Structure formats: structure tokens, C-alpha cells
Amino acid sequence: MFDVRCKGSESELSECSYSDYSRCRYYDMASVICTQYAPDLVMDIRLFKQSIKVDTHPLHHLRCSFEERCLSPEVDNIWGRSGFHNRHLLKFTSRFLNKGAVTFRPHIDKSSWQWHQCHEHYHSMETFAIYDLIDNNGYRIAHGQKASFCLEDSDCEPGYKKNFNCTDKGDQGITVNCADNYSNRIDCQWIDVTNVPFGNYSLRVDANPLRNVTESDWLNNRAVCEIGYFNRDDIIVRGCTTDPCYQESFGGNSFGHCCQFPFVYNGQLHYQCIQKNNSSENNGNNSELNNENRSWCSTTNDFDQDGKWGYCSEKI
Predict the structure, then answer these.
(1) Which terminus of the chain has fewer CB atoms gathered within 10 Å of its CB, N or C?
(2) pLDDT for the residue 281
């Protein structure tokens, strides 16, 4: 099997998507180990929505954040200069609950963990989560610079015991039915929006985005909130979702929302991205879609009714 891509919810390898069957050279082969039990991270959408805010901080109060590269790159050019500089930070809480059957553990050996002097603990995963701010064309205009994470049991559901704590030098992980809570009061739990224009955006959080740790379900790892950012003192949060994302979209008119399959187009159901010819049938005022010959999808289940869409690949 070539170009195998699995979502993590398959019961056997044949259910994964692939391009073709053929004989493999011995150095191109890979093995697959199936397991009955795996962790499953789920974002606390309610806390995420309640916690979103914008705070302003003097730059000289953000020394640890600067050392850990949690601010926008342009700060490198002004750090240490005379004068008073502020940073406007879009803050939010990310609480990840493990609803799987076994503990979520870092994928790298403890000997490779990074010691962070400012926070005085080890970080065991470089890319445990990513934070993106998406504009109305579906493109990322700012992102969180949080370089790495420490995994621990911040709180647990009744009847379950904490097993991991970042304050010592012991093991790290997230126990079943426990959560790792990154409060909006924690350093680097933000996106630096100092130079971001006011407007409407999508704030997106992806847990375990590189799929470095096996989970029983990767499709519930993303949370998205629609926000209005029109002044330095307040954020309007219009709605948040944890819809599974099988295929990202880019451009179009849907703020980078995920493709929805199946979707109705010209009265027919489509179960994958489709190629648009240059006809303008049923596209209404979507002149950009009418004039393009690129693969696209609907970002709602009924394009004929809603007219919401995006391209299935970022580049032509």
C-alpha cells in the first residue's frame, strides 16, 4: 500500500486511505502495530469560550516569554531598546481532558526533555498543541509561539487520582479522566496580536497536531471559536465548536472552516473535494469559485443553500 493515511479511528489497515497497491522495496517498508487501548484528548470547549480575552502588558514585564520565544518575531528588533513598548496578547485557557482508555504519555524519551529555567520544570513535548488565528480568507495571520509543554494532571474527575506533576522531576502525562489545564494566566498561553488589524477571525486550537502520540480518535482534537476583535480592550466571542476536521479549507468565504462531507452541490451529494469547471451554474455571486479550476469543498452540508466554500489546498 502506498501513501497510506489513517485518521486513527480505523479498525484495520484496509480502512485507511491509500493511493495504490504494489511491491515495496525493503527499505521503503514500515510496520503497523494495532492496539486495543489508546488515550483520547478532548478540548474543554466551554472553558475555552469563557476564557478568551485581550490583555496589554509592558514588554519589559515579559522577560521569560521573550526568552522562550512566545512573542511575535518583530520583538527581537525592539527588545532592550529604550522607550516604553506594549504587547497586546489574545489570551485563552486550553484544558485537555483524556477520555481514552490509557494514559497520554510524551512520545520522546525523558533524557531528551528540555529544562526551562524561567518556569523551573521540564517540557516533555515540543508540539503538544498549536494556536492559530485565521482570517476570513482561511489563512493564518498569527499563531501562538509557545515552544513546548509540560504534561501533568491539573485536575481529575471524581474517583480518579492525579499521577503527574510538573513541579518535580518525575514522569509526565495525562491520566485517564484527568485534564491538563493551561490557564490564560500562564506565560505563553496566548497569541501576540499587537500588529494584527481589527476584524473578524477564527481562533483555533489543535491538540497533538502532529499525531506523535497515538489516540483512539484524532477527529475531536480541534476547537474553534469565532471572534470579533475591534478594540484593544475587548473580544466578542460569537460561537465555538469542536467539529471533527477531515479536510481543512483555504481561501473561499468560510474563515478556513473544515470541509463538511457529504455536502450537497447541484442537488447531488459529494463525499470528497471536487474539481470545479468554469461553468457558473448555481454558484450565485461566488465569482472567485466560478473562475477557478481548483479542487474545493463546501464548509456546510448544503452548498446549494448556504454558498459557503473553500479550496482543498492552500496553493494553486
Answers:
(1) C
(2) 44
pLDDT at 292: 62
**Phi, psi of 14, rounded to the nearest 5 degrees:** -65, -15
* HSE, side-chain direction, 13 A CA sphere, residue 54: 20
Q: Which pLDDT score is estimated for 230?
A: 93
Fold of 246-278+292-315: Seminal Fluid Protein  PDC-109 (Domain B) (2.10.10)
* Number of neighbours of residue 111 by Cβ within 10 angstroms: 5
Strand partners, 167: none
First to last CA, the chain: 28
| Backbone region of residue 197 per phi and psi (left: phi > 0; alpha: psi in -120 to 50; beta: other values) | beta
Q: Which CATH code fits 37-245?
A: 2.60.40.10
The x, y and z cell numbers of residue 184, run together, are 490564560
pLDDT per 10-residue tile (average), the chain, 316 residues: 65 69 65 78 94 94 84 86 85 95 90 74 80 86 80 94 85 94 92 94 90 85 93 88 77 82 87 66 56 81 89 70
What pLDDT, on a 0 to 100 scale, did the predictor assign at position 286? 62
| The C-alpha cell that represents 198 in the structure block | 481589527
Query: Percent helix, strand and coil across the chain, each rounded to 5?
Result: 10, 30, 55
Distance (Å, rounded) from C-alpha 311 to C-alpha 144?
24
Q: 270-281 burial, b if ≥16 CB within 10 A, otherwise e? A: beebeebeeeee
Residue 97: its pLDDT value, please? 96
Half-sphere exposure of 183 (CA within 13 A, CB side): 4
Please, where in the chain does CATH 2.10.10.10 lie? 246-278+292-315
pLDDT for 31: 65
Cα–Cα nearest to 183, from 5, 302, 44, 37: 44
